[in-house]
Design a protein that fits this description.
Layout: H1 10-18, H2 29-81, E1 85-88, E2 98-103, E3 108-115, E4 118-121, E5 124-125, E6 131-141, E7 156-165, E8 177-184
Antiparallel strand pairs: 1-2, 2-3, 3-4, 4-5, 6-7, 7-8
């Protein structure tokens, strides 16, 4: 019969017991709680960063859409204003929300106005439904070199507008984007048809 050797060294016996499979079979409650806490913290931070990134991307897309839309509308207006004459934008304040003028292309009177939260041309909307125009302002002036009004001086039209997304997230409001341009008409008062040249500009 084989005799079993008993370990008499206490330190070696303790080391053998610690290396047994039962000693490394699982984690303690404290270890599990620490691991779960770290996981929750990391997950919360990651979700917050992801949400902020999505919010920032949507905000940027909205800003680009508004700026592109309103810039295209003003560019089209400026192109038509350069060929127009006999501008009318009467208002009791600095500028008016409606402007009318004649076009030399035979299209008759053209009218731009702020209508229904957008910019309209002869009653037809120019801006998209996803854009809300808060302000549209026309200032028509004819000043000579001395800064005095002269009916025979070239027309200069200043267009001011501000717009924002039509639908916004309450948690991330976008302030209206202002835009301004000044255009001079290429048609001088003296070049108008004689029937319209009431001031006999030469």
């Amino acid at each position: 019969m084989k005799r079993i050797k008993r370990e008499k060294n206490p330190q070696r016996l303790a080391r053998i017991e610690n290396e047994s499979p039962d000693a490394a079979a699982g984690f303690t409650i404290i270890e599990l709680l620490v691991a779960m806490s770290i996981f929750v913290v990391v997950t919360t931070v990651a979700v917050g960063i992801f949400k902020n990134a999505l919010r920032g991307e949507r905000r940027l897309v909205s800003l680009m859409s508004v700026q592109s839309n309103i810039s295209s509308a003003l560019e089209e207006m400026a192109r038509e204003v350069r060929g127009g004459y006999l501008f009318e934008a009467t208002s009791s304040v600095f500028c008016a929300s409606t402007m009318s003028f004649l076009s030399p292309t035979g299209q008759g009177t053209t009218t731009y106005a702020l209508s229904g939260g957008g910019i309209s041309r002869n009653g037809v909307q120019m801006t998209g439904a996803d854009v809300k125009v808060d302000r549209l302002c026309f200032a028509v002036n004819q000043y000579d070199q001395n800064g005095r009004y002269n009916a025979c001086s070239p027309w200069r039209i200043t267009i001011l507008a501000s717009a924002e997304p039509a639908i916004q997230n309450p948690s991330s409001l976008i302030q209206p984007i202002p835009i301004q341009t000044t255009v001079s008409s290429r048609v001088l008062p003296k070049d108008m048809p004689p029937s319209l040249n009431a001031n006999n500009c030469q």
